Amino acid sequence: MSIKLFLLLSFWTGIAEAQSYRRIHNKAILVDTHNDFLSKVMEHNFSLDADLKGKTHSDLARFKTGGLDVQFFSVWSDGNQKNPFAFANRQIDSLDAVIKRNPAKIVKTGTVKEILEVIKENKIAALIGLEGGHQIENSLENLDLLYKRGTRYITLTWNNSTDWATSAFDEKTNPAFKGKGLSGFGREVVQHMNKLGMLVDVSHVGEKTFWDIMETTTKPIIASHSSVYTLCPFRRNLKDEQIKAIARNNGVIQINFNSGFIDSTEMRREDAFIKNHQAEYDSLQHATNSEYIAEEMIHNKYRNESDKLRAPLALLIEHIEYVIRLVGVDYVGIGSDFDGIVVPPQQLDDVSSYPLITKALIEKGYSKKDINKILGGNLLRVLKANEIH
């Protein structure tokens, strides 16, 4: 065979392979349970229907390029936010405004039936996840109002604890919070969420809180954006016994893309990166009054250095496979944390890169049926199981 013919055959084989994995990817229902774009709206006044390539991980056009069908938009604030319930509603307002401008592209949904109808119309189904239970301000009435506005899961804590649930951050770093878990009102919150049909999300919660939730819930739960502790022992990743408990509960673990949560060496290397630019970082933090914006800015300025911190895509796949080996393919999915992280895995530059996950799973030998479960089928099963009929 001539070199010219060999190169030509290789070229066409490559095209065929690309079409094959993209065809499988596009036929699947892709659900991402955690995207922080609404925080970018609050911080930078970005709009989801603008061309934001190079500025964010997400925009409507790139969602479609990446084959995304269902997006849970995170509504977040830290524990220092004044009037967090009002702040949460402002974020939902910003999403509603985009949906109103783009009814042919994105629709707010609340049930699996609505989601499937929207997908048939080739539109993106939008739902809301509340990241941090402090945003309900200790009020079940506020919880009800957020449900009516499209909130379909609550991460019971962020890094900050509430009066009624302790976070992984506090349980691991603050002796005053050890052993607290859920209060009586915290159990009432979980029970009320079960009655509404709202998913209980254990990402960010402490171990004591986790086990209290498992004793309290009557419905399958989710971890909306968590990874595997055994592979990367970060405080809010899930240990094997927690993963097994979620599987027994018929819930699902949605794997987080953050390099620091999937690569056990990344946090140490990132600490060294920040230390190398400490004076500039401190100045940015003082100027912006936000460690998160300062972190984003320093990573963007020194992009070549930052890119060296990115975990291999293979490590993300390893976390997915670990859950599958431990409890089965029915209990794992995707919760990217795009636009809430600054160091995504290599190759996964933004939401347009999702097909590369499908390609990697095919190369690992997973069937179309299993890939469909991982990309979204498992999450839709859990959402359906929580619905009130």
What features would you describe in this structure?
The chain has 389 residues and is an alpha/beta fold. It is 51% helix and 11% strand. Strands 1, 2, 3, 4, 5 and 6 form a 6-stranded parallel sheet that branches. A 3-stranded parallel sheet has the order 7-8-9. The termini are far apart. The relative contact order is 0.13.
Q: How large is the radius of gyration? A: 21 Å
So how many helices?
18
Order of helices and strands: HEHHEHEHEHEHHEHEHEHHHHHHEHH
Low-confidence stretches: 5-16
Mean pLDDT: 94
- Distance from first to last alpha carbon: 64 Å
Biggest sheet descriptor = 6 strands, parallel
| Apparent shape | globular
Strand coverage percent: 5-15%
Helix content: 40-55%
Report the oligomer. single chain
Strand element count: 9
- The computed structural class is alpha/beta
